[in-house]
Design brief:
mainly alpha, 2 domains
C-alpha cells in the first residue's frame, strides 16, 4: 500500500485537528493552574511583612496566668504550661501576632527538656514568653524569675479545683529540674515520679512561675522593675557556665576550667 493510500484511508479534517489541539492546550493549562496558583501564593508569602520584634505587652492578671498554666500542665506539661499561662492572655488581649503562635511547639521543654532533667521546663516556658514580649530585655526579666525560683519555697500556688492535694513546699537552690523536683520528692516522701502528687506539684509550680513572671512583667511595663539583678555568670569562678552551688551534686569534684 502506498503512502497516498494510507492518508486517504484516515483523512483528518481541519475542524477535528483544531478541536484536538484545543483539547490538548486546555488540558495543559488546567494541569498548570495549581502550580501557577502555588507560585503566586509563594510569592505573596515571600513579600509578606514580618511582624516587628519584639511583639510587645499588655498588662494581664497574674492569677489568671497562673490558673491557665496549672490547667495546661495536664495537657502538655511544664514548659508548654508556663508559656501558655503568659501567652494565651496576650492572644486574647493583643491578638496578632500572638494569636498565630503555635503553643504546642513548646512542649519539648517538659521534664528538663524531653526528660533530660536539665533546666526546669517552667523556666524554659517563661523564657520563651518573655523573649517574644520583650526581646533582649526578656533576658533581664527571666533572670529575675530564675533568681526568685531558686530562693523561694515552692509550689506556693493554690489553683481553683486542684486535681490532687499536696502540702509540701521546698526550696530548690537550683534552676535544674532534677534537683528541684528531687528535693521536693524527698521532703514530701514521694518515691514515684509518675505519681499524682508529683504531677500536682509540677502543675502548681508551672502556675506559680507563670504568675510570678507576669508580676515581674507588669512591673516592667510600668517602668517600675526596680534594681535589676546582675546577670548570673560563674564563668570567672569555673571557666564555664555553671551554678554557684555545684558542690550540691559534684562535692569536691566540681569541674573547673578556670586558669
Amino acid at each position: 500500500m502506498s503512502k497516498k493510500a494510507i492518508f486517504e484511508e484516515a483523512p483528518i479534517s481541519r475542524r477535528k485537528a483544531l478541536t484536538d489541539a484545543g483539547m490538548i492546550l486546555g488540558a495543559t493549562a488546567l494541569a498548570m493552574l495549581p502550580a501557577a496558583a502555588g507560585g503566586q501564593q509563594h510569592s505573596k508569602n515571600e513579600n509578606a511583612k514580618q511582624p516587628r520584634f519584639p511583639w510587645g505587652y499588655k498588662k494581664i492578671d497574674p492569677e489568671k496566668a497562673g490558673q491557665i498554666a496549672y490547667e495546661k500542665y495536664f495537657k502538655g506539661e511544664c514548659s508548654f504550661a508556663a508559656a501558655s499561662g503568659i501567652l494565651i492572655p496576650l492572644q486574647e488581649e493583643i491578638g496578632e501576632p500572638y494569636s498565630s503562635l503555635p503553643l504546642d511547639a513548646f512542649k519539648f521543654g517538659h521534664s528538663g527538656v524531653v526528660g533530660w532533667g536539665t533546666t526546669c521546663g517552667t523556666l524554659i516556658g517563661a523564657g520563651i514568653a518573655t523573649a517574644f514580649i520583650a526581646g533582649e530585655n526578656g533576658e533581664q526579666i527571666l533572670n529575675e524569675v530564675i533568681k526568685w525560683y531558686t530562693n523561694t519555697s515552692l509550689p506556693n500556688f493554690k489553683p481553683s479545683n486542684p486535681k490532687a492535694t499536696i502540702h509540701t513546699e521546698s526550696v530548690s537552690h537550683s534552676p535544674l529540674c532534677h534537683i528541684s523536683v528531687g528535693r521536693w520528692m524527698k521532703k514530701a516522701r514521694v518515691t514515684d515520679y509518675r505519681s499524682d502528687p508529683r504531677k500536682e506539684r509540677c502543675a502548681r509550680l508551672a502556675g506559680r512561675v507563670a504568675k510570678q513572671t507576669v508580676i515581674i512583667l507588669n512591673k516592667w511595663a510600668d517602668g517600675n522593675l526596680g534594681k535589676i539583678t546582675k546577670s548570673h555568670s560563674a564563668i570567672a569562678a569555673f571557666g564555664l557556665p555553671a551554678q554557684n552551688n555545684c558542690s550540691d551534686c559534684h562535692k569536691q569534684a566540681a569541674p573547673s576550667f578556670a586558669k
